[in-house]
Structure formats: structure tokens, C-alpha cells
Amino acid sequence: MVEPLQSNAPNAGLTLRFVLLGVASLFTVGGGVCLRPELLATYHYNQHIIALTHVVTLGFAASIIMGALYQLAPVVLEIRLHSERLVRWHFAAHVVGLAGMVSSFWIWDLKLAGLFGCVMGLGIGLFAYNLGRTIARAPEWNVVALAISSALFWLAATLLAGLYLAATKCWSFSPFAGISAMHAHAHLGGIGVFLMLIAGVSFKLVPMFSLSEIQNARRAVGAILLLNAALLGLFVTMLLSNPWKLAFSILIVAALALYGWELIAILRARKRQRLDWGLKYFITAVGLLGPVSLLGVFLSWPNLVVNERIGQLENVYGLLALLGVVTLAILGMLYKIVPFLVWQTRYSREIGRNKVPTLADLYSAPLQALGYWIYVAGLLAVCVTTILGREQGIRWSGALLCAALAIFAINMAKILSHLVVVRTRFTASLNSPAMLEDHESPQH
Amino acid sequence: MNPRNIDEKDIWAALRQVIDPELGCNIVDLGLIYGLTIEQGDVLVQMTLTTPGCPMHESIAWGVRTALLEVEGVEQADVELVWDPPWNPAMMTEFGRSHVAGN
Fold it and tell me: What predicted TM-score, i.e. pTM, was given to this entire model?
């Protein structure tokens, strides 16, 4: 019996449960938009939008990103996760906190939201502690570790800001304008946690999947440091409704430009010419940072009068950031992470002994392509109809997004089915040239 | 032939059974095998991966050991992962290059 080599990656099931929760949350939001399209056609500062936003941010994006980090961080940093038991406790706190918070926002009981926010905070604290202890033992500090550490810091800040917001709503003691404080809180999470992780993790994953490498480590580190500095300034100026927030918005754009420059250099140096759909989803998400940045700079213009049209532009800004950048990036990475986890669980002990499928054999590429185009069309349509304030249009656009998500779900089910289907069903379809036994290499 | 009648061709054939599941190509044609030492019933494979920190490295190394132990005469199989020289696409065979380009 061959003993497996020591693996740094934790049990794949730990990550999978977060991923499944995230996918379920995404469908909840898709259903919500289809059932209540009028929510997007009105100003975003209302209880239902806040509830749905937290389903996207905490239920979908945070669940998947945190689950993926439990798998990714030990691999990237080449060290074992500090504790798998803490991951299980984190998941329990996350589920209870999420369900309670979203329900409380929906019925606008902010004391209850704060209570469940504390449960969520307990889970996030476990997550930060677990990853912090892991990173602290890393033999080598790199740009990915820097980005993950930064995101952990901003995650804690976002949580504290959220609890502060809930408390001020209950007891009215805040010196800050409510809407400014909410925008500041949202940007801490959006830029500090999601964008920071998307950028940082992509410095490892994009080179790995495209057979390339970081082209300029100082440029990559510079982008992360600048993003940190700019976010600190943006948060403070947003909170104080200070006109200098425009300058810090431009600084954020500069950091993203630096990141984009490095990403383009990595892709240009890639040795695998054909990009798969997972990477195409991800690159599209990064490309959407362009229009999101432009909108962000415009909306941070000093003394901008908030009328109905500006309110709808703010909705589009949030939609493009969450459903465009964050969701597309995560869907793309899920197409890389989930097949890997399933393959690892199902086939890693059979490699070298039996014929095993490749990761690409686990899903349907045509379905990926179909889902991509429908999602992009739905995103474009939902943005246009939101600007125009057309409820019926938003409903149909939401239906398009749901259709794309249904296709995604079919592909995910196809991947997950490998965990239960018997091996013999695959062997017939595995006549790929890579597996032909009679192939003779000219080298040997 | 070596003293334990291990045919080197069998070893290479066994190594070709091990694929990189992300790239869909076997590790021999990817140029990941740097060295092969056969002594008595012991086989030592020096190999690399396409990227340091590759999450598949445990599975691939496990697969190599498993595949080698299936070869008649092999009693002990060891895998040594090396990073020098770093892997580059020029190390792929013609077959490997065309396969990866098509994927």
C-alpha cells in the first residue's frame, strides 16, 4: 500500500460546504430579483435591498471566498492550515449569523441584526484567527500573503463598521450621516475584502492556470499597497462626506490600473495560449473594473446632487461591482476550484492505477460558454433597465441572469455527480490522447 | 535490462499513465520527468511540476509511486520533487505541446 504524501491542503469537504452555501445564496438573490424587480428600480437605501445585498456579499461572495481560502492559503503558502476544527465552528456560526442577519434586515429589526451580526462576527473572528495563525508560520512572505493579510484586516474593519451602523440605528448616537456611513462600510467590504482577495489570489491562480508567472513582483506588491492606502483614505473621506474622497477614488483607480498592468503582462507571457472559460469569466470580471471605476469616480464628485437618476447610477455601480466584478470572478474561479476539489476527493487515489478524467472532463465547456454569454447579456440588460427605472425590463433581465445561473447549476451538478457515479462510467469516455497507452514519445 | 529484470520501457509506459489533470497531458510528454534511476528493485524518479506550489503535487507524486509499483519487479518507488531547473514549455515533447495548445 502506497502512503499518500503529506498534503498541506485541508479536507476538501470543508471548502465544499462553504461553496454550496454560496451557490444557494446566489440563487436566493436571483429569485429575489425576479420576484421583486421593483426593488432595483428604486433607491437602494431600503431594508429589502440591504437584506439582498448581504445575501450576495456574506452569503455568496464571502462564503465562497472564505471556503476557497481555507484550501488555497495552505497551498500557496506551502504550510498546513492551523486548525480544521475551527473551520467547522466557523461554518456553523456563519450559517446561523447569515440566516439571522438577512431575516432581521428583511423585517428591519436592527437589534436582532446586530445580535446575529455578532454571531457572524464570531465566525469571521475564527476565520481570521485560523488564517492569521497559518500565515504567521509561512516560510516565505509574498504578494499573495500580503493581500490575504490585508483582506483579513479589512474584513474585521467591515464587520466592526457594520455592527457600529446597526448600533447607531438602534440608539442614534452617530455623528456621521447614515448614508455616508453605509457607503463607507460597503466600500470597506467591496474593495478591502473582495477586490483585495480577487487581486491577490489572481497573482497565484492566473499564472498557475495559464502557465505563466508574475512578471514584476514590485509592481504586484505596489498595487496591493496602493489599494490599501487609497482605501484607508476613501473610507475616512466617505465617512466624513469630505470632498477629498474624489482624490482617493482616483488613487483606487491608479492601484487597479497597476494591478491590471501586471495581470496583462502575466497573460501576455503565458505558455498556454488557449484560455478556458473559467479564466474568461475571471478576466471579464477584471475588465468590468474599468466601467465600475469610471462610475465610482463620477459618483464621488464633490457636491454631486443626488437626484433620481444619480440614485439609479448608484444602483448600477453596486450591481456592476457585485453582480459583475465579484460574481463573475467567483463563478470563473468556481469553475477551477470545484472540479479540482471533486477530482481530489474522487480520483486522487486512483491516479497511476486507473484511468482518471481530466478536470475539463468533469464539466461541459459548451454550457460554460452559453452561461457566460447569457450572464453578460443579462448583466448589461439589468444595468440599462435599472438606469431607465423599468421594472418589467429588470424582471426580464433578472430572468436572464437566473437562466445563466441555472446553466451554472447544471454544470456544477455535473461536476458534483462524480462524487457518486461509479468509475466504470467514465472509462469509455477517456480515450483522450493523453491516456493512450500505445503512444510513443519521440523523446524516449 | 537491470538485475531485477525491470524493463525501462515499462517504467516510461507506467509514467505515461500519470496525467496532470489540469493540463490533460501525461507527465512524460509535459517534460516533468528530470531523471530516472533504477537500482535492483528500487526506482527513483526526479521530477518537477509546471508551477511551484501546484495543488496537484501530492496527487501527481502519489500517482507516480502507485504507477511504478504496478510495474513488474519494482519493489520500492520514490519520487523526488526538484525545482531546478524550473520547468518551461520547451521541455515538452511535440505531442505535449500540441496537446496543451489544444486544451
Answer: 0.84
